[in-house]
Amino acid sequence: MTGWPQSLTDDPSLTQTKMVLTGLSNVKSPLYIISTFNTRTEHCPRLPRKPEHRNIYAELPMQETFDGYTLITSSAWKNMMNAATGGVGVLLSTRALKACTSIVKCTERIMKVNLSGNPVTTVLCCYSPHNEHPGEDVEQFYQKLSTTTNATPAHNLLIMGGDFNAQLGPTDSLFTFNQNTNRNGKHMKNFMEQYSIVPTNTRFQNRTSKLWTHRRPSDGFVQLDYILARKKWINSIKNSRAYNSFEDVKSDHHIVSCNCQISYRKRKAPARGPMKQIDWRKVAGNAILCEKFTVAVHNRFSTLCDQLDEKNSSAGYDTLTTANKDIALELLPKKRKKTLTFASNKTVMKAREELKNVAQKHQSRSTRNTERNLDAAKASLDEAYTEALEAHVKSKTEELNKLHTENKHAAAWVALRELTNQRASPVIRIAGETTEQRLDGWYQYFSNLLGKPEQCNAYLDDPFSNHKISESLPIQTGRFTMAEV
User: Fold this and answer.
1) What is the DSSP code (8-state) at residue 463?
2) How far apart are CA 172 and CA 128, in angstroms?
């Protein structure tokens, strides 16, 4: 599977105090579900019950295995009531544990997990201080989060999930549940702008019941939990929203999940130079056009050179290339764009125009009837293209048969390459009207290339190695003597 380690292809899963990562394998379209969840331990049926915990697994040991999963947590801390609170962690399946290269506890509120793959997946499990906490605590949290982000390679698929206790208003996020931005939301917004991070669960338009993540005891619902992703890989996030799938946990938070499918950016082809638009074959075969082009370039270059310093040779060369390019684009013929002949078929053009009209009606007023008409118009256009293509192939086949019967093999190859959309390979041609003249041309070509003896310059007739450089040197070649030692 692309972009995820092979050890996670069957049943990978990664769960943490604030975050749940589950990989779903599909042969045709690999899809991964990444989630974040804030729960209460006393209502979790499978784990030891610890009262007054808002963060699941907070007081469990650093590593413990149960039900085939390995739980790794950071330590909790004591609050003002001397009760353990906080802590983040990850829950790894056997396959996820094999793919995990490192798990680092950055702080009591941040844990970093690296998973091997292409690209390497880096998961940051986060738990921000509440909005009522002192501002110094929130600033310290984002300072450490910034340090961890800077230490993550730029190519990594960076995912941050957790309870950020932040509200983003409509002016700061596209599809959000909150009506305004609180203090924590401003800190998170500044952090995302600095490191090109995007909140995924406010990027897609969903119902309001799929946006809020926390039920307050008194004043309704808010959106506090987020899954953030690096903007470089944002196209890999296909959907992200809140779910109420864990009602048996009895948490006042909803789980937030996003569908992740690795999407690589296509390398863009380099832009073609403007001079490649010129049809140089037509230019080479037209002596009058060549003379006209030469005169025009000379006149333009002479006019521009009057304004240049004679000592500046590089500026003169730049002026010549500029004049050459400008005159060529103005005067010389350009290559014709190759178009599919069957695309200009009357039936295809009529079906395309009909589809355009139906699409405009559907965009102005979307109904089930216009949607059915739009689907029917698309099907009609596909059918028209298929019929036109079949007619084009049939006509080219008949043309090939006719050319073969008339022994016009060169024209037949041209028609075949046009039908298969293949370019001809470059061929070295020797001038000659008949076969005998061309054979004689090849003979003369190879005779001049291989039949002449090697020519040496006069100063090489006496090789350099034969020149006497100095008198004989007193070099002893016998055994070492005591004096030499």
Assistant:
1) -
2) 19
